[in-house]
Structures are given as structure tokens and as C-alpha cells.
Specification:
Oligomer: single chain
CATH architecture of the largest domain: 3-Layer(bba) Sandwich
CATH superfamily of the largest domain: FAD/NAD(P)-binding domain
Structural class: alpha+beta
Distance between the termini: 30 Å
InterPro entries: FAD/NAD-bd_sf (IPR036188)
Strand order of the largest sheet: 10-9-18-19-20-17-21
Helix content: 10-25%
Protein name: FAD/NAD(P)-binding oxidoreductase family protein
CATH topology of the largest domain: FAD/NAD(P)-binding domain
CATH class of the largest domain: Alpha Beta
Organism: Vanilla planifolia (Vanilla)
Pfam families: NAD_binding_8
Shape: elongated
Strand content: 25-35%
Largest sheet: 7 strands, mixed
Length: about 500
């Protein structure tokens, strides 16, 4: 962890000819101020007075609704731009908030350039974000599921170099199982072998673990939920629920969704906040299910039974994969339970979205039942004839897949010394995540090497506009095409 820099007054300068940094009280417009009553209603006040007809309600305990109203209005104000003028320290350090593939590779790129960083991640079980593999013991059986990223492709030579290293280390292998499109009623069509499909040899999580073998310039802090960013004395000061987590020369946001929006909403980085706020994300339900008896899936001669399928024509299911035959082909057999991962469509996820941290039991039971019914429909089975799973686990990916993208490798605000990386900037896949993290790491290193004296030369991605992402229900996989050419690349919306 970097030590605090000498106390130097942080100077805020005009940002692109804007007014000097001065904190002022805010009003909505003219002489109109919004006052909150104890019940969360508002009253207009002009000239400082309150309407005589308005009755003051009895004081009540603050509630979340009232807080959300205040937060929403506060966030609507334009933030003053943080503009650092103090020189960079002799050995700059970077805080990377998010330990998924992009965050880890950003740290790796910085390490290669001799720059220290600390990766903060909320993961309890490990790093990797949605490169997750879950192992459980149930009924004296070991069950293994890739419950997020299912497989990936590589079309960029820079990402291919990393994949080749994973191959050489035995962490990755080609997925040669039968994969295709499964239409409602059990009609299966294999996908053309247009590109190599890769999987983690023992699941996706070991790939993330392999990226943690740093030489000493990277510190990992988890589980940790960074809740506040404050510019002070020429550094960014991070805290977790009022607990100091260190001071850094620059920060990287390597995750997205409402938590990232909340973190940026009052940090003095309006350009980053605007870009992050413009991101639209779908929601996807994931159902893990283990069956004692094999599912009656389609077969294709010598290729055997279906191992993975993009489901079409079923509202509650968009993807299904047999983890047992995919990850444990040598151990698969009649007595080995089949572990399946099912994903819903984005439309179904949106209609059934709830707080993912606290899923109501009624909703969980409803979603599980409807997704299993969707599997029946996809396989062309009569209702109620699907084998009953002896183990299930339901998870909601509330921020699963971007429906729009900026089409840039990374974002960097050189005045605030802050950047963003993530798969959503280029699409939604492991390749995009890798390229984004590596690009930002090298961009930051170049910025530090310049001494930060020419910030205008290092601004990137701050003013690009969003465009739609096609096929957003299930994402896209670079180089992979279906017979209708509607699938392109990603990790199933969950890379």
C-alpha cells in the first residue's frame, strides 16, 4: 500500500475554460428551492418563506424512499471537475476497483511497466468477476458449474497470446462438444465450426487465479467494497464504510452497474460519470441444476449428445450447457449426475428483476419453475416429464450484459487522473475485457511516463456516444456465427 504523500494543498483549476472550482449552494432554478417534508413530499419556497397553507407534519424517522429522492436530485446537479495540478509522485500508484478480467489485466499491464497498483474486489470466494466456477458437495457428490462465462473465442492476436499461454499451462482447452441452436420443440441445428471455442479446462475460475501470480507490484484486497472516492492533497483517498483504504495517484473503475454509478456520482468526475451513467445493462437469471438421470437432449451421430445450446423461441431460457460433459468428460457416465447451467432471456430477466442481494423466496420459486418449464419446451418434452433436479441454485445477474457500447478500448480523464475499463466498452466478451484492461494499463503508464504535464494529450473516450449492441439477449462471440448469422461474440452475456 502506498504511503500518504506530503501534505500539499490540492489546487482545482478550470477544466476546459469552465468557471474556477468553487463550491456553492445550489438551487433548482431562479429563486426556487425544493424543501422536503418528513413524508418525502416537496413544497415550493420562494424568497425563503413557506406557504402558509402548508402544514408541518410531525417528525418521522428517515426512510429509504426519502433518501432516494434526495440522492436523485443531488445527482442531477453538475459536478465540479477535479483537476489535479500537483506533480505526480516519484513512484505513482494506482487503485483498481474491480477484480474481473479487465481489472486484473490492467494491473498486469501496469506491473510490466514497473507501476504499483492495488486491486480492490468484493469477491468473497475469489477474484475473476463473472469468470466464476462453483463447486459444491450434495448427496455425497461433487457438482461443478460454470455459472457465468460459459466459453470464449479469440480473434485479436493480442488476446490470442494470452489464450496460448493458458493453453500451454493446461488451463484452457478447445471445446469440441456438440454446440448449436435449439428451437422450441427439440429442433437442434449444430453451429458451423467457424472458429475455435475455448473453455477453462477445470472451469473459468482457475483462469482468474492464474492472473494473480504477480511479481510483487500488485496488492490484492478482498473482500472490500470501496464506497467513497475523495481528492485531497494531490491524491485520491479511498474508503470502505468510513475505513481508510489508502491514497493513490490515479484510480481505475473496472466494474459497472449501480454501484459504479453511485461511486462516481459525487466524486468530482462528471465526464466519467456521464459515460458510465449512459451504459444500459440487461438482467439475466442463472439456474444451476443437477440431475441424477441424463436429460433427453438431441444427439448427432458420432458427435454425441448436445453439450451446449443457444435456445430460441422460449421466453424463460436462452442458453443451456452440460457442465459435466464439458468440464469432466473423462468422469462422465451413467452414474455421474449431470450438472446443467441455464440462463434466461434478457426480456424475462427484466420482467422478473428484483434486488439481486435479497431475492424473495416467492420470486425464486417462480423463476426456477418457469425456467425448468422452458427447458421442457426447448427439448420438446411434455409438461411435467423433465427429470426433477436434486440440487438447484438460482442467481440473478442484475447487470449482466450491455445493450449499448461506446466502441473504445478504455476511458481516461487525465485532469482527474481516473479511468474506466471493462468489456462493455467494446461489446461484451472476455476478449473485449482483456483488451480494455490491457489498453488502460498501458495508457496510464504512458501518462505517468510523461509526468502528467500534458494532460490534454491523454484524454480518451470522454465524448464518444453510445450505439446499440446487436443480439444482446445472449451476447456475442467474436468469429462465431449461426446459420442466420445473428450470433457474434461474448460469454453468454456474462463474460
Amino acid at each position: 500500500m502506498a504511503a500518504l504523500a506530503p501534505v500539499v494543498l490540492l489546487a482545482f483549476e478550470p477544466f476546459k475554460n469552465s468557471a474556477p472550482y468553487v463550491r456553492k449552494s445550489r438551487k433548482l432554478s431562479g429563486n426556487l428551492t425544493l424543501l422536503f417534508t418528513a413524508k418525502g413530499r416537496s413544497m415550493e419556497s420562494r424568497g425563503g418563506g413557506v406557504s402558509r397553507n402548508a402544514k408541518s407534519p410531525a417528525p418521522r424517522k428517515s426512510n429509504s424512499y426519502r433518501s432516494s429522492r434526495r440522492s436523485a436530485i443531488k445527482k442531477s446537479f453538475s459536478q465540479e471537475q477535479v483537476s489535479f495540478t500537483t506533480p505526480l509522485t516519484g513512484e505513482p500508484t494506482v487503485a483498481i476497483i474491480g477484480g474481473g478480467l479487465s481489472g486484473l489485466l490492467c494491473a498486469a499491464a501496469l506491473e510490466e511497466r514497473g507501476i504499483r497498483s492495488t486491486v480492490f474486489d468484493t469477491g468473497i470466494h475469489g477474484l475473476g468477476g463473472r469468470m466464476g466456477t462453483r463447486e459444491v458437495f450434495e448427496s455425497q457428490q461433487q457438482l461443478v458449474f460454470d455459472h457465468a462465462a460459459q466459453f470464449f473465442t479469440a480473434t485479436d492476436e493480442r488476446f490470442q497470446k494470452l489464450v496460448d499461454k493458458w493453453l500451454a499451462d493446461g488451463l484452457v482447452r478447445e471445446w469440441k462438444g456438440l454446440i448449436g441452436e435449439l428451437e422450441a420443440g427439440g429442433h437442434f441445428t449444430p453451429l458451423p465450426s467457424s472458429c475455435v471455442k475455448y473453455i477453462g479446462a477445470k472451469g473459468m475460475r482457475p483462469l482468474a487465479d492464474s492472473l494473480q501470480k504477480f511479481s510483487g507490484l500488485v496488492e490484492i484486497t478482498r473482500p472490500c467494497w470501496i464506497s467513497k472516492l475523495e481528492p485531497c492533497n494531490g491524491m485520491w483517498h479511498l474508503s470502505e464504510r468510513e475505513k481508510p483504504r489508502g491514497a493513490f495517484d490515479a484510480i481505475v473503475i473496472a466494474h459497472n452497474g449501480k454501484c459504479a454509478n453511485r461511486l462516481l456520482s459525487s466524486s468530482g468526475l462528471p465526464l466519467l460519470y456521464r459515460q458510465m451513467k449512459g451504459l444500459e445493462l440487461s438482467s439475466i437469471w442463472a439456474l444451476l441444476a443437477a440431475f441424477k438421470d441424463p436429460l433427453p437432449v438431441p444427439r448427432d451421430g458420432a458427435l454425441g449428445a448436445v453439450e451446449g445450446a443457444f435456445v430460441k423461441g422460449v421466453d424463460s431460457v436462452s442458453w443451456m450447457a452440460n457442465n459435466t460433459s464439458k468440464l469432466l468428460p473423462l468422469h462422465a457416465g451413467p452414474r455421474v449426475p449431470e450438472c446443467w447451467t441455464f440462463f434466461s432471456t434478457a426480456g424475462y430477466g427484466k420482467r422478473n428483476k428484483v434486488p439481486q442481494e435479497n431475492i424473495p423466496s416467492v420470486t425464486a420459486e417462480k423463476v426456477k419453475m418457469e425456467m425448468l418449464e422452458g427447458v421442457e419446451a426447448a427439448l420438446g418434452l411434455s409438461r411435467g416429464t423433465l427429470p426433477r433436479p436434486f440440487y438447484t441454485r438460482l442467481q440473478l445477474w442484475g447487470a449482466a450484459l450491455p445493450t449499448n457500447t461506446l466502441g473504445v478500448h478504455c476511458i481516461f480523464d487525465p485532469y482527474g487522473r481516473a479511468g474506466i475499463c471493462g468489456d462493455w466498452l467494446l461489446g461484451s466478451c472476455m476478449e473485449a475485457a482483456a483488451l480494455s484492461g490491457t489498453s488502460l494499463g498501458n495508457h496510464l503508464a504512458d501518462y505517468f511516463q510523461s509526468g502528467g504535464t500534458r494532460p490534454e494529450e491523454f484524454a480518451v473516450g470522454l465524448h464518444e456516444t453510445f450505439r446499440s449492441v446487436a443480439g444482446h439477449d445472449i451476447g456475442h462471440f467474436p468469429g462465431l456465427q449461426s446459420k442466420e448469422s445473428i450470433l457474434t461474440a461474448s460469454n453468454l452475456a456474462i463474460c
